[in-house]
Amino acid sequence: MMSFLRSVATIPLAGSAIPTEFSLSSSSSTKSQTFPFPSSSRSSPRLRASAPMACVPQVPAAAVSEFKGPNVFGVVRFVQISMENVRIEASFGGLSPGKHSWCINEYGDLTKGAASTGNIYNPLQDDQAATQLPGDLGTLEADQNGEALYTVKKENMKVTDLIGRAIVVYETEDKSVHGITAAVVARSGEVGESCRKLCSCDGTTIWEATVY
């Protein structure tokens, strides 16, 4: 019996290396009997999803550019609504009444204001003959109070490629002179989280545009 107890005491506890067999000997016989453990090569059952996961609203990639004066104030928001499409929404105040060109420029260098932001952003370098470069945002039209709203969907653009560049606003539609103000495009987390969510399945509009 003591021999049997010693044999049992040598069986490893959970978490230790598991042998493939153990021996049991009795006091009446010197011959050991071998009892193999179940094969460890059998794989345990895998859990499978019983149904597809429900659609969960998600906050897409977003960026923001803020104009803090002293003359022109505004905010521009960029949201990735698909792999190659970006929704741009902007509101401005402090502009002179009338039309103002504006664009995304190559660099976020504001050491000399708009003059140090480079040329209009153009990821399509092989298509210089395009009628409008991707970074050209068209025209802002300010009312008599100097306020302007803008919403557009831009194709062939990614929010991640815009971060660190600059938004430039011009005094008129003429881009031959430097812009009157500029602001850097920065990554946005709080803007997207504080507004309505964009569902990945239906493309709901994210923001209601309001004057800044």
TrEMBL record:
Keywords: Copper. The keyword Phosphoprotein does not apply. Pfam families: Sod_Cu. Residues 22-44 are annotated as: Disordered. Residues 73-178 form the Superoxide dismutase copper/zinc binding domain. Gene3D superfamilies: Superoxide dismutase, copper/zinc binding domain. SUPFAM superfamilies: Cu,Zn superoxide dismutase-like. GO terms for biological process: superoxide metabolic process. One of its GO terms (molecular function) is copper ion binding. This is Copper chaperone for superoxide dismutase, chloroplastic/cytosolic-like. It comes from Raphanus sativus.
